[in-house]
Amino acid sequence: MFWKKKQEQDLTAAEPVVAAEPTEPTPKSTQAELEKAAEKLAASLRSYAEASYAAKKAVPDEELTAAHYKVQIARKIATEGRIAYALGRCLPEHMAHWHAWSQRDDFMDWVGFDAADIRASRTTEEDGMRRVVVSTNDFTFRDRQYRLVFRDSGLSSAPDDHVYIGEVHFYAGDNRVAKFDVTKDLMKEYSEWQFADLTGFRVGTWMQEVLDMAAQIEASREQKMNRFSDDRARQAAAEIDLG
Fold first, then answer.
1. Is 141:156 a contact under the CB 8 Å cutoff?
2. Cβ pair 145, 136 in contact under 8 A
3. What is the dihedral of CA 103, 107, 110, 112, to 10 degrees?
4. SS (H, E, C) the chain
């Protein structure tokens, strides 16, 4: 029965594997349509995102916009008109020790401008965890009463910050006409107070007088420096013999 067994083996033999037909590449026209559809969808989503963001934005507040503009104009007047320099640096630096110097008999020799009826004091205040040193200087200039209050709040609480912070409050008569924020960078070799920003400002004739105060102080400093240089030259010349 050999032939029968062989026949059974032939029947149980593995069927031949039919090769898969190769996948035809997507026609270029179809790819172009897909890319176009993707671009259209992306543009639509982008427009939706922009519209959604715009809808969530706060409606412009005309009053707030006007407030920002007003501060901007005041800042421009103060900085470009040198009021910021005069009150943010010149006068505070010049009056820094008046509370002590005013006890000296020769104090008026060091005032540096046409101030009279000077009263100077220094106190301390506790503002939360911060100790504030308050220097108050009252004086008259051209028969008008002025007051400069300097509030030294000490080192900034910001991490790794080397800046002292303070405030200048300037009064013409009973009215506060300027309120400036000032800073002093301790990393500089010769550090002085500098104007940082303003939080109060009233335009008036006091501005011209403040500029005159600063001009007189600068002229007085220059004269003292020249006098010092001249004295050194005279002393050196007295010790020189050119033969």
1. no
2. no
3. 100
4. CHHHHHHHHHHCCCCCCCCCCCCCCCCHHHHHHHHHHHHHHHHHHHHHHHHHHHHHCCCCCHHHHHHHHHHHHHHHHHHHCCHHHHHHHHHHHHCCCHHHHCCCCCHHHHCCCCEEEEEEEEEEEEECCEEEEEEEEEEEECCEEEEEEEEEEEECCCCCCCEEEEEEEEEECCEEEEEEEEEEECCCCCCCCEEEEEEEECCCCHHHHHHHHHHHHHHHHHHHHHHHHHHHHHHHHHCCCCC
Choice among 21-30, 48-57, 83-92 with the minimum mean pLDDT: 21-30
pLDDT digits (tens, 9 = 90+) for 76-98: 999 999 999 999 999 999 999 99
The angle at the Cα of 204, spanning 200 to 205, to the nearest 5 degrees, equals 140
Residue 192 backbone phi and psi in degrees, to 5: -130, 160
The answer to whether the pTM exceeds 0.85 is no
pLDDT-derived band at 173 (thresholds 50, 70, 90) equals very high
Asked if residues 130 and 233 have their Cβ atoms less than 8 Å apart, the reply is no
Domain positions in the chain: 68-225
Report the 10 Å Cβ neighbour count for 148: 23
